[in-house]
């Protein structure tokens, strides 16, 4: 009895809309297209980044090979921050650049090789005379090696510059005798600016740079 009174919807299944199913396929295809597009863009971006990095690396290598510095600062290990301060002062306030400190020399090489490159690859060698200087045996070795280099090479004459910085300077009475024979830069002195102008002359730099280039070409030949 109940069956006869009930109404059954006999609408064929084929008459129901299939929009959802088709939309899903379209969305999958659209997502696939977007994914491939982004992948291609990412690959192209990665390729461009690597090419730029490669160009920068080559530029850096060329820079390291070709630059003849105006000065190098030799310093005790504990005086790295003070050496950086002096470097920035000479470059920014006096326009004496490029300059480098010994702590910036390439890692992974022998100290003696770095010392030779630092001294012969710059016009002036500045020694940072601090209390730490006397306690560092390596500093003493650097000084005597650089001093002998300036004596044996005529174009390096007067290229060794002792300097007493503002912070923790080494007193004159405790300065090694060999260093006392050379006029030192005194940052606390009122005549410091005039000292800097008299020492770091462009004509001297250009002369040493020309000699450095000639010797470099002879080695490369």
Polypeptide structure, described:
By secondary structure, the chain is an alpha/beta fold. The protein contains 9 helices and 5 strands, in the order ααβαβαβααβαβαα. It has helices at 2-5, 19-66, 80-92, 111-120, 131-135, 137-152, 177-180, 192-199, 202-220, and strands at residues 69-74, 99-101, 122-128, 160-164, 185-186. A 5-stranded parallel sheet has the order 2-1-3-4-5, sandwiched between helices. α3 (80-92) links the parallel β1 and β2. The model is unreliable at 1-8, 10-22 and 58-64 (pLDDT under 50).
Quick structural overview:
The chain has 221 residues and is of the alpha/beta class.
Which structural traits does this protein have?
single chain, 221 residues, 5-stranded parallel sheet, alpha/beta, 57% helix
Total strands: 5
As residue ranges, the low-confidence spans are: 1-8, 10-22, 58-64
SSE pattern, N- to C-terminal: HHEHEHEHHEHEHH
Give the N-to-C terminal Cα separation.
113 Å
Percent of residues in helices: 55-70%
Number of helices: 9
Secondary-structure-based class equals: alpha/beta
Shape: globular
**How would you write the strand order of the largest sheet?**
2-1-3-4-5
């Amino acid at each position: 009895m109940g069956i006869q009174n009930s109404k059954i919807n006999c609408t064929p299944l084929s008459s129901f809309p299939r929009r959802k199913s088709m939309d899903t396929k379209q969305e999958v295809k659209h997502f696939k297209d977007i994914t491939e597009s982004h992948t291609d863009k990412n690959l192209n971006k990665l390729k461009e980044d690597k090419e730029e990095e490669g160009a920068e690396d080559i530029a850096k290598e060329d820079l390291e090979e070709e630059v003849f510095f105006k000065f190098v600062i030799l310093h005790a290990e504990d005086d790295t921050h003070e050496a950086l301060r002096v470097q920035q002062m000479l470059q920014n306030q006096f326009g004496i650049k490029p300059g480098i400190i010994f702590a910036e020399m390439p890692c992974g090489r022998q100290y003696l090789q770095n010392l030779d490159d630092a001294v012969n690859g710059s016009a002036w060698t500045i020694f940072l005379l601090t209390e730490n200087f006397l306690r560092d045996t390596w500093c003493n070795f650097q000084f005597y090696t650089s001093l002998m280099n300036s004596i044996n090479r005529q174009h390096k004459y007067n290229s060794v510059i002792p300097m007493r910085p503002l912070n923790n300077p080494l007193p004159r009475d405790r300065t090694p005798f060999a260093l006392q024979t050379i006029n030192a830069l005194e940052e606390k002195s009122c005549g410091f600016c005039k000292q800097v102008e008299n020492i770091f002359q462009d004509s001297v730099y250009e002369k040493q740079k020309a000699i450095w280039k000639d010797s470099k070409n002879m080695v490369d030949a």
